[in-house]
Design a protein that fits this description.
381 residues, alpha/beta, Rossmann fold, 2 domains, 5-stranded parallel beta sheet, two-stranded antiparallel sheet, 13 helices, globular, binds thiamine diphosphate, binds magnesium ion
């Protein structure tokens, strides 16, 4: 094999230190032949998925600044890593997200209404208002709610994959993490189990180079995050996470292997957290925002793919703007609907603890029933 795809035939070290890329920063292909067969419908779906995340995030952040929701975490600049991997998943697979993968859920069928209901913590929230905003879940589409504790998602993902293996379930489990997550003990336990048990999982690290205010340079002494997989006998790939086609092909390689029960793969998708960590953060306090501007501008993943699609005639000039406008209408309509929905019924507070609420829970519920309630059920002071 020649061209960029020969990367997959490299030795372990070369794959974990290299950087698989199909589209250059300016939108030109690294190798014309390598993307000659690009499917127009797939390309348009990837593009649409990325624009959807960008528009939704901007709208929700505005809502937070207006005081209408308590908290929000954006994924600006990471859309290629999110959508490029989401597009590989199949309905039978399970997804265990970390902080910034709501776009994977949306791509798989999580509705905007359910996503926004969770952020409001209203009666339509499948988690009954018990989680912070930005913890969506979708049982129907096998999208597990994010566990807030960094890195706990990885043993969850590997454990689900092991269960699928034992039960003879044909799917694959996709587990996500951030660069910060790879410094926690759970990461090492999970990778070890994945390697030993050949768990059918695809473990994806979105290396956005920041863990709140901790930069990648002090996160690890390993030359790359991908290299950490090798010690556990897990094949590791390092990919340009702002190149949606590179992500799509690398994750396809990993998922195909897991579907053949050929073992797990650990992917480092190199990207950048262009936004603040969350609506509670101000990154100008701890980093050079001049660097951010570079990632926000010339390295923007949507701009890069848009240039390629325009050159191929897969989208028309102005189509991105029209698409963004259409999505913004959908998001605004979903917000308008969900903002009207009231808080979850007070009785739901004691659901799901025991099969039948105990006398103690019922007594506590009765004791709080007459207390005044906040108008906005999810307003974090
Ligand atoms: C065990 C644990 N420690 C600390 C935190 C607080 N915290 C939330 S997100 C975060 C950083 C996560 O960084 P990374 O894994 O790189 O993900 P990113 O935010 O960049 O997507 C920290 C320290 C937490 N949620 N859980
Ligand atoms: Mg990070």
């Amino acid at each position: 094999m020649s061209g960029p795809f020969s990367y997959f035939e490299g030795d372990d070290d070369a794959k974990a230190r290299g950087l698989f890329q199909l589209i250059r920063e300016d939108g030109t292909p690294v190798d014309d032949a390598a993307i000659a067969g690009l499917d127009r419908d797939l390309a348009r779906r990837l593009f649409e998925g990325m624009v959807r995340i960008r528009v939704t995030d901007a709208r929700m952040m505005a809502l937070q600044r207006q005081g209408r929701i308590g908290f929000y975490g954006e994924a600006v600049g990471q859309e290629a890593a999110i959508v490029g991997s989401a597009a590989v998943t199949r309905p039978e697979d399970w997804i265990v997200p970390a902080l910034r993968e709501a776009g994977v859920g949306l791509y798989r069928g999580l509705t905007l209404d359910s996503y926004i209901a969770q952020i409001f913590g209203n009666a339509g929230d499948p988690t009954k208002g018990r989680q912070m905003p930005c913890h969506p879940c979708d049982r129907e589409h096998h999208y597990v709610v994010m566990s807030s504790c960094v890195s706990t998602q990885i043993p969850h993902a590997v454990g689900i994959a092991m269960a699928m293996q034992i039960k003879g379930d044909p799917g694959v489990c996709f587990g996500y993490m951030g660069d910060g997550g790879t410094s926690e003990g759970d990461f090492h336990v999970a990778l070890n189990f994945a390697g030993v048990r050949k768990a059918p999982c695809v473990l994806i690290c979105q290396n956005n180079q920041w863990a709140i205010s901790t930069p990648g340079t002090v996160q690890t002494a390993a030359p790359t995050i991908a290299l950490k997989g090798i010690g556990y006998g897990v094949e590791a790939l390092r990919v340009d996470g702002n190149d949606v086609l590179a992500v799509y092909h690398a994750v396809t390689y990993a998922a195909d292997k897991a579907r053949r029960r050929g073992g797990p793969t650990f992917l480092e998708l190199l990207t950048y957290r262009v936004s603040a960590h969350s609506s509670s953060d101000d990154p100008s306090r701890y980093r050079d925002e001049g660097v951010t501007e570079v990632w926000k501008g010339q390295r923007d993943p949507i701009r890069r793919f848009e240039a390629l699609l325009l050159a191929r005639g897969f989208i028309a000039p102005g189509e991105r703007e029209a698409l963004a406008q259409q999505i913004e209408i959908e998001v605004r309509e979903a917000i308008a609907r969900q903002e009207q929905v009231g808080a979850p019924a007070l009785e739901t507070l004691i659901d799901d603890v025991f099969e039948e609420p105990t006398w103690l829970l019922r007594e506590q519920l009765a004791a709080i029933a007459d207390l005044p309630r906040a108008k906005n059920p999810h307003h974090h002071g």
